Amino acid sequence: GQSLEQPSEVTAVEGAIVQINCTYQTSGFYGLSWYQQHDGGAPTFLSYNGLDGLEETGRFSSFLSRSDSYGYLLLQELQMKDSASYFCAPYGGATNKLIFGTGTLLAVQP
Amino acid sequence: AAGVIQSPRHLIKEKRETATLKCYPIPRHDTVYWYQQGPGQDPQFLISFYEKMQSDKGSIPDRFSAQQFSDYHSELNMSSLELGDSALYFCASTPLRDTEAFFGQGTRLTVV
Predict the structure, then answer these.
(1) In which element (H, E) is residue B55 found?
(2) How far B18 CA sits from the closest chain A CA (Å)?
(3) Mutate to test the interface with B, among A85, A96, A104 (most CBs of B within 10 A)
(4) Among A48, A95, A100, whose Cβ lies nearest the Cβ of B100?
(5) Residue A104: which of A78, A84, A90 has the closest Cα?
(6) Nearest CA of chain B to the CA of A59: how many Å?
(7) Which residues of A touch B100 (CB under 8 A)?
(8) A7 to chain B: which residues are within 8 Å by CB?
(9) Alpha-carbon dihedral angle through residues A94, A98, A99, A105, given to the nearest 10 degrees
(10) Those residues with Cβ within 8 angstroms of residue A56's Cβ, 6 or more apart along the chain or in another chain
């Protein structure tokens, strides 16, 4: 089986830093992806961690610890346009099954 | 750059009717995923295909079926529609074992 946990909602102000955590239990784990989805829009890929440690892509960074079955997405210098849902998605590699977590709704306030 | 194309974008059907959703993946992407997303819900994995063969199944009802054709486009067929089938249906494509999935804009199905 597979389980994923994320906080349901996070609120932060413009310019701040926010961390969205993800804990997972899954078999055949290769790595952890993160996706952003604006209301009514399609999910878009943000980052992938295949190895433990931090991956940085502009204002966004993602971290993975396999031993703790834990990862997080870090968003810096928050902008209003970052208000969206964020999903972690373990990547199985050996199977074609990309499963999304329950998602975290991020609200960025002025 | 080419993106994943889904059609139609919007579809209204009555209960017990049948619907067919189409997905055209990015060229040279051999893996297709289908998802159902209800209001305020996370995308639920339905089914995936690799090289025109079904490779994984998620929470897809027996009333739904899907296939991938020789030109790699995929269709999701939904029969005996229920009100609860009203949702956004996304298709995504990726090269095999690539870690980035590209999503189409979705088909919004409304069952009345």
Answers:
(1) strand B53-57
(2) 24
(3) A96
(4) A48
(5) A84
(6) 19
(7) 33, 45, 48
(8) none
(9) 140
(10) none
**pLDDT band at residue A93, thresholds of 50, 70 and 90?**
low
**8 Å CB contact between B111 and B86:** yes
Q: What percent of chain A has pLDDT over 90?
A: 73
CA–CA gap between residue B75 and residue B53 (Å, rounded): 13
Strands (E), chain A: 3-5, 9-13, 18-25, 31-37, 44-49, 53-57, 60-65, 70-75, 84-91, 104-109
Asked whether A32 and A48 are in contact (CB, 8 A), the reply is yes
Distance from CA of residue A34 to its chain's centroid?
4
CB nearest to A96's CB, from B42, B48, B106: B48
Does B85 or B59 have the greater pLDDT score?
Answer: B85
Instruction: Reply yes or no on whether the pLDDT at A94 is more than 70.
Output: no
The pLDDT tens digits of the residues spanning A21-31 come to 999 987 777 78
The predicted-structure confidence for A47-60, as pLDDT tens digits, reads as follows 999 899 999 989 99
Going B42 to B93 to A99 to A43, the CA torsion angle's sign is negative
For residue A53, what pLDDT is reported?
96
What is the Cα–Cα distance from A91 to B103, expressed in whole angstroms? 16
